[in-house]
Specification:
A two-stranded parallel sheet has the order 1-2. By secondary structure, the protein is mainly α. α4 packs antiparallel against α5, α15 packs antiparallel against α16 and α17 packs antiparallel against α18. The radius of gyration is 27 Å and the shape is globular. About 65% of the residues lie in helices and about 0% in strands.
């Protein structure tokens, strides 16, 4: 929709010539009626009344404060009837008023993300970072990170995206549990290196403490100058231990939250402490089972409990306890009834069934997923990849070709999944060409290089070994090896990565 606030007629006599203020009682009354309808949950009615008030020629005679609040009501009413495009447009206009504060700019960012207006979401997040940095914590990590990622897909937004990253850095932005968004800071190090500003690169590097991000910098030739200048900062094994200590502290300091427990478990995977993950998961699950239904042991059970099951399953896999791992993963899938996550565990379970050559069960695990509401573009690619492998195992080439076509058409949503799909399909030449293109793409290079690294060994099922062998065969091609060496390197890293 296009929002136009009525202006006074060109032939109107100047208000200043009257000895009394303009009569705005009618438009004020309309706004109040709209507000009452909004309170009553009558969103369509509220939208109609407030929109008429906004179009009233007398609207411009209201004080700026009253205009501002009317626009907020219009946005809220549109949001109530799930017209997020209109809600966003009203909020954009509202934030042009001097009364707009962090609350309104945060809502503008959320609404922009809901309608995929990533450039505007970036503007809103940057405004909050510059003016109300303490309010960034009210915005979900996902909104900030998806905004940065999606802006990266539009080359026209490159300059604005870097401005956003610098604003976040200056605002001392962190993810939940004091976790640094190190992948974002890594880009700022690269920016500094490109400008030959080693002092800035060193300063930003101090906030990069994730072993995964340090590996990604070590293997990318664009970071060679800082790696050589600060070799002690790239001790990946030491960083892994430090990360465990930091997240253990967060977990201890927040005993009623599962979020830091999940983060701590992930850090334990890096150092291979699978037994500790299992022990911790068992304690959490036992504590939750003893709690009353109306008084759960943890405040974020609905959001995180399924991940406790999933991570326990992954740890069992890390110890080669395959049957137990599958049983726990099936339990994680059953948690969807009480979980906010309706997708991840179903897709993960489908992948596990495929490793055991159980394609029928893999497809059944995906049943009940709402394609339109529950999945991002990346999530759709993950789901379709499970379906592709299932149909290939079943020998159903007709359905497999349909899914393969979808993956090809939407590969931008998950280049790594498309990479694996081509290898599953047997198209080694196509997979190699795609991988080389990823290495040449500055935005996708680090992900492609990371996938070529070697970590400490963990047990693998035969199905995993088959997939790994296809991947290694592609990496061994002379054209692929040459492309890797041009932009980076392959290394053996002293940490574990169960998923690589």
């Amino acid at each position: 929709m296009t929002m136009t606030i009525a202006a006074a007629p060109a032939h109107a006599v100047s208000i200043a010539s009257f000895p009394f203020p303009p009569d705005t009682r009618a438009v004020e009354a309309a706004i109040e009626r709209g507000h009452k309808s909004l309170i009553d949950g009558k969103y369509a009615e509220a939208s109609k009344i407030i929109d008429e008030a906004l179009q009233n020629p007398e609207f411009v005679q209201l004080t700026k404060n009253r205009q501002f609040h009317a626009l907020l009501l219009a946005s809220e009413a549109a949001r109530g009837r799930e017209d997020y495009l209109a809600a966003h447009e009203f909020m954009v206009i509202a934030t042009e008023y001097p009364d707009a504060a962090a609350e309104q700019w945060l809502m503008r960012a959320r609404l922009a993300s809901w309608i995929d207006a990533w450039g505007d979401s970036g503007v809103a997040v940057k405004t909050v970072a510059k003016n109300w940095p303490q309010s960034l914590a009210e915005l979900s990590d996902e909104t900030v990170q998806w905004t940065v990622m999606q802006m990266g897909r539009d080359k026209k937004l490159a300059a604005e995206r870097l401005e956003l990253l610098n604003a976040l850095y200056d605002a001392k932005f962190q993810l939940e549990w004091h976790v640094e968004p190190t992948d974002l800071w890594r880009e700022l190090v690269l920016q500094a290196l490109e400008r030959k500003d080693m002092a800035r690169a060193r300063a930003v590097l101090k906030r990069i403490d994730s072993p995964g991000s340090l590996v990604r910098m070590r293997i990318d030739r664009r970071f060679d100058a800082i790696v050589q200048a600060e070799p002690g900062a790239f001790d990946v094994a030491a960083a892994s231990q430090a990360e465990c200590r930091k997240l253990r502290h967060e977990m201890t300091a927040n005993p009623t939250r599962l979020g830091p427990v999940v983060q701590y478990m992930y850090s334990l995977f890096t150092v291979g402490e699978y037994a500790e993950v299992i022990s911790l998961a068992d304690r959490i699950l036992a504590q939750n089972a003893k709690a009353a239904k109306d008084k759960p042991a943890f405040d974020d059970v609905a959001d995180k409990l399924n991940w406790i099951y999933d991570l326990k399953s992954q740890a069992l896999r890390g110890l080669g306890r395959w049957d137990e791992a599958l049983t726990i993963q099936e339990e994680a899938r059953r948690q969807r009834e009480t979980s906010t996550d309706k997708v991840s565990q179903a897709i993960n379970l489908g992948g596990s069934y495929l490793l055991r050559h159980r394609p029928d069960d893999a497809l059944k695990s995906l049943e009940g997923i709402d394609w339109a509401r529950d999945l991002s573009g990346y999530g759709r690619m993950q789901l379709q990849h499970v379906r592709l492998r299932a149909y290939l195992q079943m020998g159903n080439h007709e359905e497999a070709e349909k899914v393969f076509a979808y993956l090809r058409e939407n590969k931008i949503d998950a280049p790594d999944s498309w990479q694996e799909a081509m290898l599953d399909w047997g198209d080694l030449d196509g997979a190699a060409a795609h991988y080389i293109a990823r290495l040449h793409d500055p935005e996708d290079r680090v992900s492609a290089l990371y996938a070529a690294q070697t970590f400490r060994p963990v047990p693998r099922l035969p199905g995993e070994l088959e997939s790994t062998e296809r991947w290694r065969k592609m990496l061994a091609r002379p054209d692929v090896t040459t492309a890797i060496n041009e932009v980076g390197r392959r290394e053996q890293h002293p940490i574990y990565d169960l998923w690589n």
